[in-house]
Amino acid sequence: MVGLVSDKDILIWLGRWLEWCATLKFDSSFSRIVEGTSFMNTENRAILIDDDILVREAWLMRARSANKIISVYESIESFRKVASTVSRQLPIFIDSNLGNGVKGEEFARELFGEGFTELYLATGYPASSFKTMDWIKGIVSKDPPDWLFKGN
Description:
The chain is an alpha/beta fold and 152 residues long. The chain has one domain (25-149): Rossmann fold. It is built from 4 helices and 5 strands, in the order H-E-H-E-H-E-H-E-E. The chain has helices spanning 7-23, 53-65, 76-80, 104-113, and strands at 44-49, 69-73, 92-95, 119-122, 138-140. Helix 4 (104-113) links the parallel strand 3 and strand 4. The longest helix is centred in the first third of the chain and has 17 residues, at 7-23.
């Protein structure tokens, strides 16, 4: 029928739109964080490192609805650009599988060695599928934990 768009067309458009969004250089759409900004004295609640744009957007939407600020990064490399300015006590949630064989738990071990103490794996796998990792404070699902947005 004339004027109607097929499901296939919508999926193609959505895919192109998501690819375009992935090229944007925003670390947080709630509060744009400029590279080099110090995180030491901000209201930032947490950091998420996940290669999945939908997961990052879900966390940002949840933060916006709670009127809180979080920062999201799509890769270890993008986080490394600001790591020196991040409080060592700020919760950092890291995807277990960051793509290309990169394991979040190994990156978390590096961060622990640099003095970060609030490290969590954000994963779709059950906690029982991981060995004990003394540097990981907890294993959470891909959904942001409720406690992150409670209180001031």
